[in-house]
Queue: 2 jobs
Job 1
Amino acid sequence: MDPVLEITDLKVGVDTGRQVHSVLDGVSLKLTPGKTLGVVGESGCGKSMTALSTMGLLPDRFAVSGGSIKLMGEDLLAAKPARMRELRGNAISMIFQEPMTALNPVLTVERQIAEVVELHQGKTGAEAREIALEMLRAVQIPSPEDRLAAYPHELSGGMRQRVMIAIALACRPKVIIADEPTTALDVTVQAQIFRLLRELQDQTETAIMLITHDLGAVAEMADEVAVLYAGKCVESGPVREILSNPSHPYTRGLMACTPRLRLGAAAASAAEEGLGEIPGMVPPLGRFPKACRFAPRCALADARCHAEAPPVVPTGPDHSALCWHTNKMEQVA
Amino acid sequence: MKPLLDVKDLKVHFPLANGSSVHAVDGVSFQVNEGDSFGIVGESGSGKSTTAQALMRLVDPVAGSIKLDKHDLGALEGEALRTLRHMLQMVFQDPYSSLNPRLRAGQAVREPLDLMGLGPARGRDKRVDEMFRAVGLHPDAKRLFPHQFSGGQRQRLCIARAMVTEPRLIVCDEPVSALDVAIQAQILNLLKKLQIEKHLTYVFISHDLAVVQHLCTHVAVMYLGEFVETAPTQELFASAKHPYTWSLMAAALSPDDTTPSTDRFTVTGEPPSPINPPKGCRFAGRCPFATDTCRAEKPPVKTFAEGHKVACHYAGELTPPLPELAAHAA
């Protein structure tokens, strides 16, 4: 199927006044209708910047310096601000991490959902209210009629996130970017929100870009995965491929760092299980290594890794990694 | 063996303007032996952080007792409490807000020694150096300010500050939940290493079952101010018996399992308000197994093998809805 959103060789930089530091360097991603792409990495790897570039919402001093972002063939980087306003919240919308700061505290739930359909679909009054109600039902908020008049502070975290999803979905967008949508929520509520997103996706064929640092969430939600490290996409492929046969030392490291729940008979051996580590941390902007950016933290790094940027190496069906040592992966954790 | 920490029927209520009160912690009892780590798991609002704060006497309990070694922590006041403070220290969730931005790292770690007058003044700098090395920081970093450290390094500083007084007990309140997964692993491994080296005792608060299974020797599952299930770690994860524990286990996501969890056990809704907690079992409103008995009567605490305690009317009678647990029970 044709991709609905295609990001090709995206380059983003931040201007510090003295020089321009690279934030994203040649990131390419594809979103397919009805499918979810998981974008994984630690803070500072460029996940949110990829999302904000796509939405045309990059903060001051951040600018796209190369590449293209195409939504159903239309180049978003060339789109005028007025055109972006038409598309945002309509064809492409975003679910933010912290529903309390993303929602407007002085507007009711009804107003915040109705606003979107009034702006983009020209609906008014009773019609907009009806859609708001329908959306609250769709996101399974109990007694939706009463909730229309509620303000964000009157809702729990899970309910607020449902409201934000309702706003994001009100215009039946082609693409939803969900930036750590469950990080602020409890695990049982996270399970409910993921289930809800999947059900809504099945009905609407929406493509989802799920930004997360949690490989468990990726396993649960994603069809495809892109792993970002220090502004580069270091590995991409189908979710099963990535998680069962990670081909970049960074992905391997993330897998080894994630504590696993061992239930039933497996609980007996859990105590002996160590937790892997990736030494060091993501380098700050402006200090990305010249050659392989992961080399200073990598167990496999040799002289070449520190001297020459690694190539993209195919490691399986639709699966590739940015590494000199893809054939030595079994040596990592 | 006499436990290092003995908490009996601890209650913390916060009064509201209208005369009612928030029952944040509502009758919690547990013991922690020296060298163990006691995990308290639950969702936000379950009272786990308030329990931690009550142990530290940062909030005052309305009832119950807290005994640390032979001291009655709950009853001490003023100077008597202050002189005991070096025995128990805390690591907070957010390493950004729990360090004074105007104090250099070295001063922050040294401050407890100065405040409590521990050790000869001249030896304190050396002690601070030792602590920096123990948590994996270079002593040269002493002159830096908190904003010059990353999140993981700040949490290392907080751990160094907590350990500098040679405490018997460290209360860790979600010490890794603000950190990225790779940094989280570093801090968990550090806590584990320090525990073995220094023979520390932890009370470890977390919402993440996998983290608790990894680090703790005993686990209590908390819901709306009460412990619903308590057991040694291995026993709990091998044969959990409370439906709420099951729901937490079922909601945990694993990178090893890419099948969507559609068929997995889930509970609906969210915890009720701790202002007027439900009369009977507090979980009954969300529990798929609940009966009229559950809604009307408070469940008794039943004890199973190895000190495994479950507060459920039907504990031991229900078949776990998780295949791993069901297979183990059979």
Note: Chain A has two domains: 5-91+171-259+274-331, 92-170.
Job 2
Amino acid sequence: MIVDGARTPFVRAGEDLRSVPVDELARSCTRGLLDRVPFDSTHVDELILGCVAQPPNCANPARAVALRSGLDESTPAHTVSRNCASGMQAISDAYDRIRVGASDTVLAGGAESMSQIPILFPLSFGFKLSSLSRARNFAEKLAGIFHFKFADLKPRIGLLEGLRDPFSGEMMGDTAERLAREWGISRADQDLYALESHRKAVAAEETLQREINALAVPPRLDRVVRHDVGPRPGAKLEKMARMKPYFDRKMGSVTIANSCGITDGAAMLLLMESAQAKSLGLKPVARILGSAFVGCDPLRMGLGPVHAMAALLKDHDLELADIDRVELNEAFAAQVLACQAALASDQYSREVGFSKTPGAIDSDRLNVFGGAIALGHPVGATGARLILTLARQLHAAGGGHGIATMCIGGGQGGAVLIEGIPS
Amino acid sequence: MSQWKLIRSSSWNQAIPDPDPTGRWLHLIIDAESSANVLSQTVLEDLSQRLDQVPEFAGVEALIISSAKNGHFIAGADVKAIGSAKNVDQVNDACRSAQDLFGRLSRLSIPSIAVIHGTCLGGGLELSLGCTARIAIEDPRTRIGLPEVNLGIIPGFGGTVRMTRLLGLRGALGWILPASRLPAKVAHRKGVVDASVPVEGFRTLSLQLIEKMVADRFRKVKAQRKKRRKGLISYFLDQTALGRSIVCRQATKSVRARTLGHMPAPERAIEVARLSAHLSEKMALVEEAKAVSRLATGPVCRNLVSIFQDSERVRRGVEGQPEGVWPDAKQLIVLGAGVMGSGVATMAIEKSISTRLRDISEDAIDQGLKKIGDAVDSRRKKRRITTYQQAEILSRLSHGKELVGLERCGGVLEAVVERLDVKRSVLAEIAPLLAKDAIFATNTSALSVTAIQKDSPVADRVVGLHFFNPVPKMPLVEVIPGEFTDPQVVGIALSLARKLGKYPVIVKDSPGFLVNRLLLPYLDAASRLLLKGLSGSHIDEVARAHGLPMGPFRLMDEVGLDIGVEVQETLHSAFGDRAASSPILLKMVQKGWLGKKSGIGFYHHRGKSSTWNRQLDPMVQASPSTLPPAQIISSLLDPMVDEAARCLEEKVVADAGLLDLAMVMGTGYPPHLGGPLRAADAEGLSAIEKRLRAAHESGAARSPCNLLVDLASRNERFHTHS
């Protein structure tokens, strides 16, 4: 059972939340969630946090979140990573823990501060530093100092390296470019899709705002961040069309405007075994039915959702047509449109395991409140946000089935099936 | 039962070690009959007897002094005895014999080492200073210091002299004058203790250290002490007459700036420390005892001790008060993010209470959060807390417009605008959501708690908690039970106030409660003097010189004139003419002169500077005149004494001691005067009564109340026991 959830505002990296560490992002919305749900937080059995770039000064940020949000010292907490789907993984794990009876109440979600991904020195710098520290006399020390080259000081941008596929060395954007070429997705279609994402998010601002728990920026608390900054009410197609492709400057079509933003944020959900929720008198918004994670070609990681949905629907004997709402993460407009094309393709859908061609998802079922192109994609947090948004919209719609699905860097797809509980 | 145990042992694993007749160590363990280890006369006598026995143990290598009480070493001398000291010679003798007793610790045939675990204050530290060496245990409960000057005396069991000989003049004054209580590591860094040891397994670790110290005959310890005082500057300031006089002049100057010459103790401490830097120890100790005996029998010490005893009484719980415990696991919800609300929230998160700040306006929340953030950050800047502690403190805070989290809440503190209808509607909103055993505290300065709680379904859980502005600085909280308040709720409120580090005083639900009711006649008297043509800034200066933290007009500017008028009107309607509001205040408020917050009141406020508001002069019809300072003070304070007597008559507060304490803690009434009633007692009530009567005959509305007249006629005092 998903009792409720809360998230921080999603703010472009380098802006208002840049000084907020990832554990504070998650703590803030966890505390907001605990305040919001009328129950005694000593019932929480464990906390699971999805986080990709775990800060070097805070190994296992989940534990910091648990302690700082006032949970009992005896409440265990661990951090999980499945790249872009880390937040989804945390919830899927929590679901499994509850299902096997290991826990009754779990706080699960994800957090990412992409502003605070460190900048690194090359390893050669570290090696030379350690041999210098072993130098025994002045001559050895001097020699050690002269070993350093300027190249040893060349910074490595952690954020960029994180967005690179570790097997092929391609940037995530390059894989989106490949999908655009293969599936014949035009620049104009991508821009149009991105515009639509903004339009939907702006229209749904009020609904989305209810997910948000305002965050006061420590240590001075002199700024309170209350709103998402991603959605642009004034987004214009002409302006988008003028942007230069970012990844493939000559031939490409993927621009910053039709990709997801680099963002800071966190989202947490409170999951409970249904008898427990009942005995505490809580009114859950949705029920998790299952999850699936499937591997695919790393160079075409964007098609992951198609693979994952196929497996998930097969597990539950459902057709895509039975699903009322789909939240498909918008890593790139090209990638979403490629998924749509793949779903409509007889050959591809058969290859991934659909028994009959499901066809593209209509736009009134897909990402109805906009997606990561408008809101941004704090990698560890997005999976949890998708499920939170989906659960609340099904709850408001009075029930029905929904799937939250996302592509995962390194070539995987993840999907979670939930059922809304009417209020 | 003996209060000290003398045990020979070969090991040290528990508070009272197993005896071993052939052991290397002799343990001298204090376990006084009282709950705290206090160096009372009998404890000192017993110590003397034990020290006589030490030579009987042949073959032991060291005397180890420790406490059998967990996390508590020695709290100091007997405060009661200090407060009731009357005879100079008696005090002198007592000090001389204690000095000698502690001196014997270092003259034994074996070295003595104090192992300090827990509170080690005043006499406790003086005893340790008599030892050959000191080891402090790094427990958060370990606090080492010489707080004597706070009680109007100086360390008199040899502490002033031995501290100066150990640390030099500058170092010793650095301990004695601020009267601070420092943790083990800091004490080690500053050289008062020779080592600090982690708390886990501290007995074994200390024994290892002692073994090493004994083996090298304290050479390392002595070298360490010497090293701390090396250097040319150190030599000049501590070892030369010129250097010492510079140090003392500087110290005296900064003390005077703080005390305005009202406190004799710090100045005596400087003198004695200076003497001990060049006299022989023996002669210096004589001087020390002389100084203490004069101070201890003086009025300032008596007053400070009385206030201290009352504050301890309040901190521990006044007898007969309801008891209750604030639930630590629950959160506090503060409604209203204004100055008071954010102030209380700051205190709460700093004292480990999980807190939610709620306001109906986002702007107010932003402002409140900023205040909290700045307050906590300034503590980090002063290095009172680390950045980790700062993050931990802030993580206890949540905020928002939504009224949520009430299920996990032990209490709601309401600090919304001071209007009965608003407060009642807030209570009505909360009432159905309030958890079963949670309290609803209302922070009001003038409204009746009974009126707020009346007809509410949770009336029994409503209690008034009147904090003073600025909340983090003012130690007083008035706890006001309304007519329908459950005594247990009062108990929880007291416990919450104590948890917030405050001194709660129970006050009857009557207009103005206690502190504001007493302040108002004083402020009113000030504005009447102004209307008679006296200079306002002069009145303020005179009040300051008398020891008040700020003059009446500055105080009104600080509080806000509009609030002053509001309180005045409440009191006027309740108490009639004697509380009639002064016309000038009303005129000023009509002009929009509200004090500091509007930039203009009795003073013009620009940034940090302020000058007297000359535009006020035309409002005063009378021609300029002056009065001698003593007369100004008596016209300011006499009405306050009368009103205080009325409060006692009406049982607004349980006793005179609590009333004095409340005025000291809530308004900064000079503690060396012991509070308004003690000051009146000292002056003589008949003089005050006569002046008030004369004032009444010449037109003042106030006439001395029955209690005052009665006491004056029988030549009695408010404080019967002192």
Note: Residues 11 and 229 of chain A are 5 Å apart (CA to CA).
